[in-house]
Write a structure and sequence with these properties.
Length: about 190
């Protein structure tokens, strides 16, 4: 079973090779980068990199798990702040009284979003606590999750003309990242 430095090195190599391969694919198939392919390449490569270390989130004290939980909470907080800042009311220049804050629907919505996100992260952590190490995250369910997550992100950032292609390639790269982790564990 490989340790963190080995998996993180493998993740870096996998992400780099994936990015180079996808750029080469775009060049050789004459896909113009103006179609949004560059965004898809960046997302697919980044997600593929993460998927190499993802399987170790089932171990309670692993670095990937700590980083995932921290990143999830930071994203939830950032999304909540973004939701507040993009709201029609300007909260930075027009201070609200405490009574207005409690009754303002945008603040209530942002608080609910943050609360649900934090509870989701905590619930996901509790779910991971119940998984045995080298359990489902290291096998087919982990590969399917990695593929769906990577393919889903690729689909979301792509323009309509390449969404399906980006999602399929993303699925394969995400599942492949989990497979790289599994192979390294077996070789070590």
């Amino acid at each position: 079973m490989a340790n963190w430095p080995v998996h993180s090195r493998d993740a870096t190599i996998y992400g780099t090779v994936t990015a180079i391969g996808l750029v080469a694919l775009a060049i050789f198939t004459s896909v113009p980068f103006s179609t949004g392919w560059l965004q898809a390449v960046i997302v697919i490569s980044a997600c593929g990199t993460v998927m190499v270390v993802f399987p170790d989130t089932d171990h309670h004290n692993s670095r990937p798990r700590r980083y995932a939980m921290t990143a999830s909470l930071m994203l939830a907080t950032g999304f909540t702040v973004w939701a507040l800042l993009s709201a029609p009311h300007d909260y930075l220049s027009n201070a609200l009284s405490p009574a207005e804050m409690v009754t303002d629907p945008e603040i209530i919505s942002a608080g609910l979003i943050l609360g649900v996100a934090v509870l989701g992260v905590i619930g996901f952590g509790r779910f991971l606590d119940r998984l045995p190490h080298r359990g489902p995250t290291h096998r087919a369910p982990g590969m399917i999750f990695g593929g769906i997550a990577t393919g889903g992100f690729a689909y979301l950032v792509s323009v309509s003309s390449i969404q399906f292609t980006a999602a399929v390639i993303g699925f394969l790269i995400g599942a492949g990242g989990v497979l790289v982790h599994r192979v390294r564990d077996e070789l070590s």
